Amino acid sequence: MTSRTDNDVDVEVLVIGAGVVGIYALHRAIEAGFTAQTLEAGDGVGGVWYWNRYPAARFDSESYTYGYFFSKELFDEWAWEEEFATQPEIERYLNHVVDKFDLRRHIRTGQRVVSAVWDDDANRWDITTEAGETVRARWVVSATGGLSVPHYPEVEGLADFQGEGHHTGAWPHKPLEFAGKRVAIIGNGPSGAQMLPVISEIAAQVDLYQRTATWTTPLNNAPLTDEKRRWLSDNFERIAAQLTSPANPTGFMHPPAGKFSTEDSAEERQAFYEEIWKAPGFGKLTSNYYDMTTNREANLEFCEFLANKVRSIVADPATAERLIPTDHLFGAKRPPFIHDYYESFNKPNVSLVSLKETPFVRIDATGIETTGGHREYDIIVYATGFDFGTGALTRMGIRGRDGLDLSTDWEDGPSDFAGFAAHRLPNFFFPGGPHGAGGGNYPRYSQDQVDWIADAIVYAREKGFDRFEPTAEHEQAWMDMVAELAPKSIFSAEHSHYYGANVVGKPRKFLLNPGGRGKLHEILSELSASTDFDGALVATREAVNA
Ligand code: NAP
User: Is it the case that residue 1 has pLDDT exceeding 80?
Assistant: First the structure.
């Protein structure tokens, strides 16, 4: 055993990424007295809320449930403008947090990490940036996000387009001029669906290219009144406890229905569905009948209710039918919550292109050719999603213990422990990674993970451990849980990005935590019940300061 000092590292904790999770991880590390630094690829902080600056980008989780809960002062002083805030306000909020807690001096922007190599003798990570700089760190928290690597459609000629072509997840800072322009939006997930109503108000023509119809329902946004803000402030402790409780599977505070569909008559159910249609955001799932996601008959009935809403809103019957999903139940794919989505198709300047009926042929210098013909555009919006869950981690040149190369090790799908660590990746945490979130309010899941990680390394410091690595058995137990519960997850549509199915060649493996927050807390509590975390904590060096 060699004796080392902390001169062996540049920082004790290196955080990669300054998004919602990375900012919190940095705050926890500084607060705990570690030397810490963040490397962020973007030129500003905010993560997804920095990159996804497309027009109309906004929360579909309530603003005050998505933000941080570690400071009542912060909670009180940030007066969210709307129930569901827009991207510019979210970016301002995250910058405010960084400044308020004096984190900016620890964050280096414009620093893309291209390699992370474990030095087993020195018990540290050597992290190298695109510019060739290396930072040596004892602990790494890779808060690189599950939705940070844009996925472009596999269409011939993408690079030939001479107009403006932008992915929603890599949107330019310079505002794009849509007035009077011919615009194609490819993709109708939450990003594409959010853009359509707003862009179609100003553009000359907008064509939405749809491969698969989605169950899109109204967001039901509203301004936040002073009265509501006062209520939020007065109830901070109760709200924080409710949202962060492991017993709250979704991280929302929507009131539960309190009943099963079978308890109501057919007429009562229709009346109830009308109420649900008016519920805010994810309330369509979380306030719906208890058995909505487990009782096929109930879900089919709700789908028929939604289909009739589409038929009643969209004037052209053929367009309405194209907009009604036929391949998945409500909730089986992550549904978008958008104002005026279906209404947009009644505008004279909006049309729907069904890629099922007329697939892509190619993109060329002037526009898009499908088997239905060629259309010219000034702007093409790629709202085609992300290499979900594993995209960032497998592109970062991560080399762990005993020759582990994460990009090849995960070729058949990721294998991890608790969605934030892996065997043979000592001292490397990736909160928000694959099998991390379970569906619902993402920051509530990743905050659980960051809190556990921060507590674990503080504990390790106190007890003289300097290595954390889940054993092969820990990882296998977690993966067995994923395999067992994935078929029961509400996000069961195997052609969704939650199975990696949107990226050609990506293995179809479930990428969420199907056990939810309850299972995460249960497994982590079990692990931390023993002094050395059941063998995951190791002391590799002599206590130099003993
Ligand atoms: P997404 O949900 O993955 O949707 C991508 C869309 O592009 C789908 O309609 C998909 O069609 C289509 N597509 C993908 N590849 C295609 C191809 N080769 N040809 C034609 N169409 C193709 O992506 P997203 O809308 O960016 O949303 C991703 C996630 O970001 C969401 O699940 C959500 O978690 C988050 N998000 C949240 C908000 C918010 O309101 N807070 C807003 C935006 C995004 P198929 O369905 O056929 O695959």
Answer: no
Closest CA to 54 of 179, 162, 178: 178
pLDDT at position 539 is: 96
The residues pairing with 54 across neighbouring beta strands, listed in sequence order, are none
* 2 pLDDT higher than 60: no
Taken as a whole, the chain contains a residue count of 546
User: By alpha-carbon position, which residue is closest to atom 33 of ligand 1?
Assistant: 190
Cβ–Cβ contacts within 10 Å for residue 437, how many?
28
Q: What is the pLDDT of residues 213-231, one digit of tens each?
A: 999 999 999 999 999 999 9
Q: Is the pTM of this model over 0.85?
A: yes
Average pLDDT of the chain is: 95
How much is the pLDDT for 545? Answer: 42
Among protein residues, the one whose CA lies closest to atom 38 of ligand 1: 190
Q: What is the mean pLDDT of residues 185-203?
A: 98
Predicted pLDDT of residue 7? 74
Q: Nearest-5° angle of CA 73, CA 74, CA 79? A: 110
How far CA 513 is from CA of 212, 251, 334, 518, in Å, comes to 25, 14, 14, 10
* Exposure string over 301-316, b if 16+ CB within 10 A, otherwise e: bbbebbbebbeebbee
Q: Burial-class residue 500 by CB neighbours within 10 Å (0-12, 13-18, 19+).
A: buried
Split at pLDDT 50, 70, 90, the class of 544 is very low
Residue ranges of domains in the chain: 11-53+83-149+388-545
- Residue with tokens 């509501």, as numbered in its chain: 228
| DSSP result, 48-78 | HHHH---TT-B-SS-HHHHS--S-HHHHHH-
For ligand 1, pick from 52, 384, 445, 496 the residue to mutate: most ligand atoms within 8 Å of CB: 384
Would you give the end-to-end CA distance of the chain in angstroms? Answer: 16
Name the CA dihedral angle for 165, 170, 172, 173, rounded to a multiple of 10 degrees: 170
User: Which fold is adopted by the domain 11-53+83-149+388-545?
Assistant: FAD/NAD(P)-binding domain (3.50.50)
Q: So what's the pLDDT on residue 247?
A: 85
CA 384 to ligand 1 centroid distance, Å: 5
